[in-house]
Write a structure and sequence with these properties.
It holds the Pfam family NosD. By secondary structure, this protein is mainly beta. Among the domains are: 142 residues, no CATH class; 135 residues. The protein has 5 helices and 66 strands. The protein has a 19-stranded parallel sheet, with no helix packed on it. The chain has a 17-stranded parallel sheet, with no helix packed on it. A hairpin with a 2-residue loop joins β1 and β2.
């Protein structure tokens, strides 16, 4: 039998050579050495390299006594490595607790597995509490303190087992309360009891409490898991009225797969209440009974959480939401994945769901993915302001890709939406001053929906939004739809191969639809159901199955400078390039209409039908505009100005 030796130092030229294990312990005739550049380093087995200057400074009077070279034991010494003035003594934690006459000139090397490290006696300390990891108190009241590198502790120093069976809550909390900067969690599965009563569902008082200025660092193979329970409310990690906290690495896992209850939805992985300056990165949060990450206002105050950064995080298979936010001012979410949320509504990847007297604002989500959530990819609800969703990917969510409701001053830019087959890729409802630009919406129900519900017009009326430079194609209903909304711009979009309508104005007014390419849809641009005062200008509308531009009912339309070719592909001589039905006081000017050279051709370049009256038609080029007529007028009191070019090529002030 041999006793495990403390690391000892030997001089080799200008450097220390550190021999971690004696010859006798190795049972062989060679020594494993590590050479460190310079001559002022000591190797701590449990904590890495400690500068000799730091070591001596941390020892106070003992450090002053240990002069240069005094920590160098005689080569080959086993058991206690004697120093010139002091010594290094090998002990267990149990030994330290039984020590009655410690020496301030002795360094104590603890041998306990996974708790190894150097301790020193502090004779002036009479109050520190024994926490097993960084402070040991003997039966005589002597305090021994661990020598630590870079203010980092290991939860295993505090008796955390990580065996997937033991309740490690108290041990890990002791590590967190040790008052150092970094708390490290090595590989293993650590069971946490975070069960709370319903009254504490959004302000939990159990689970791991992270102090200010703490980096909670998990090994990539570390799992912190909720203890199996039947409660509707729990949390694994909580950051409450704290600041400057970082959580990185590893997995946070709920008890969803083993949960024994059936009700409730407040089982959280990470809970932030009034947290400030928090970073969560490279963490997997999965299988939670409620939300993977939950953010709200403080407990001590009503202040929102603020300056939150979530980067490289994966929220997977959580039951209610991947992430919820009730109150935040300043959040950045980047390079993260929110997927497979299912179980109880709303079931979204991320849901910003401000409650009474709360608000979410200054939100930025960049480069994330939202995949296969039963609800929406992102829900942004109720009075959120100043948000940017950019360069994200949304695939196969059961609801919408992005849903914004009652919000203002936001941008949805450069995202990709695929396979939202029962709903909109993007919905902007009762929102003001929102820009939707450069998005790709393919294979959804509707690509982009901008609208207003009359029940909420007193809060936000759905005005002054911009839909620009998007591509909406192969959607099963509409490319772009504006419904019940006013003073919006739909410009520069490409809407192709949508099964119903490329761009659709429904009960909408004072909107501008301009410079779009609307091709190969069922119908190109349609305005109907009481829409009025809209401008449709400078669009390219080609080869749609039915009418290119179709305006039904309403007043004060302007259709100007559009290029409409080859529409009416569904059947020959049936549809029109531009079609107005029962419109009044509208102006059709400067449009170019051609019937095209495919087998099926439009019947008319421009056709005015129904009960409309007092419309103005001038300067349109309808040479070969339709297989029947260039221009047909069945309205009353239509005024034809000079410059209309009719089917045969002549200019006329009457239809032909």
């Amino acid at each position: 039998m041999y006793r495990k030796a403390a690391p000892y130092l030997m001089r080799w030229g200008g450097s220390f050579i550190i021999d971690e294990t004696s010859k006798e312990a190795k049972g062989m005739n060679e020594e494993k050495t590590i050479i460190i550049d310079g001559n002022e380093s000591v190797l701590s087995k449990s904590g890495g390299f400690i500068s000799r200057r730091k070591l001596l400074a941390s020892l106070g009077a003992a450090g002053a006594a240990l002069t240069l070279g005094s920590l160098l034991p005689f080569k080959g010494t086993i058991g206690v490595a004697h120093a010139a003035v002091g010594s290094v003594e090998m002990v267990t934690i149990a030994d330290l607790r039984l020590t009655t006459s410690p020496s301030a000139l002795t360094i104590y090397f603890v041998l306990d597995d996974e708790k190894e490290g150097y301790f020193y006696y502090t004779p002036t300390d009479t109050s520190s509490v024994d926490n097993t990891g960084t402070v040991i108190v003997s039966s005589s009241g002597a305090r021994f303190k661990r020598i630590m590198e870079e203010n980092c502790v290991n939860v295993k120093w505090f008796n955390a087992k990580g065996d997937g069976v033991t309740d490690d809550t108290a041990a890990m909390q002791a590590a967190l309360y040790a008052g150092v900067g970094t708390v490290y969690v090595p590989e293993g599965t650590y069971i946490i009891d975070g069960v709370v009563t319903w009254a504490y569902r959004d302000k939990p008082n159990r689970g791991l409490d992270i102090p200010d200025h703490t980096h909670f660092q998990l090994s990539p193979k570390a799992v912190i898991k909720m203890i199996t329970n039947a409660s509707d409310s729990s949390t694994i990690i909580r950051i409450q009225d704290r600041s400057h906290v970082r959580i990185s690495g590893g997995t946070i896992e709920g008890d969803r797969s083993t949960h024994t209850g059936v009700g409730g939805e407040w089982g959280y992985g990470i809970c932030l209440n009034g947290a400030k300056n928090v970073t969560i990165e490279d963490v997997i949060v999965k299988n939670c009974w409620g939300d993977g990450i939950f953010i709200s206002q403080g407990i001590a105050t009503t202040a929102p959480s603020s300056n939150i950064k979530i980067m490289g995080v994966t929220c997977d298979n959580n039951r209610r939401q991947g992430m919820s936010s009730l109150a935040v001012d300043g959040i950045y979410i980047g390079g993260s994945s929110f997927r497979n949320t299912n179980g109880t509504a709303p079931q979204s990847g991320i849901d910003f769901e401000a409650e009474l007297n709360m608000e979410n604002k200054n939100i930025k989500i960049v480069g994330c993915e939202f995949i296969n959530n039963t609800g929406d990819g992102i829900q942004l609800n109720k009075s959120a302001t100043y948000f940017i969703f950019s360069s994200n990917t949304f695939v196969g969510n059961g609801g919408r890709g992005i849903s914004t409701f009652l919000n203002a001053h936001g941008s949805i830019i450069g995202n990709t939406f695929i396979g939202h087959t029962t709903n909109n890729a993007i919905m902007v409802l009762n929102c003001n001053y929102v820009t939707v630009s450069e998005n790709q919406c393919s294979g959804n129900n509707t690509g982009i929906y901008v609208g207003a519900s009359s029940s909420y017009l007193s809060i936000r009326n759905g005005d002054n939004n911009v839909i620009t430079n998007n591509t909406t194609d192969q959607n099963t209903l509409y490319g772009v739809m504006v419904a019940g909304s006013f003073n919006n711009q739909v410009t520069g979009n490409q809407c192709d191969h949508n099964s119903n309508i490329g761009i659709y104005l429904y009960e909408a007014g004072h909107n501008i639809v301009s410079n779009n390419k609307v091709n190969y849809n069922n119908s190109g641009i349609v305005s109907s159901n009481g829409s009025s005062d809209n401008i449709i200008s400078d669009n390219i509308v080609e080869f749609n199955l039915k009418n290119g531009i179709h305006v039904s009912g309403g007043t004060n339309y302007v259709a100007v400078n559009n290029y409409c070719v080859g529409n009416g592909q569904l059947s020959n001589a049936t549809y029109c390039n531009i079609y107005l039905n029962s419109c009044t006081n509208s102006s059709i000017q400067g449009n170019v209409c051609r019937r095209g050279n495919l087998t099926n051709k439009s019947a008319y370049g421009i056709s005015l039908e129904g009960t409309g009256s007092a419309n103005f038609v001038t300067n349109n080029d309808c040479y070969q505009g339709g297989s029947v007529n260039g221009i047909r007028d069945l309205h009353t009191s239509t005024v034809f100005g000079a410059g209309n070019r009719i089917n045969g090529g002549a200019f006329s002030v009457t239809p032909s």
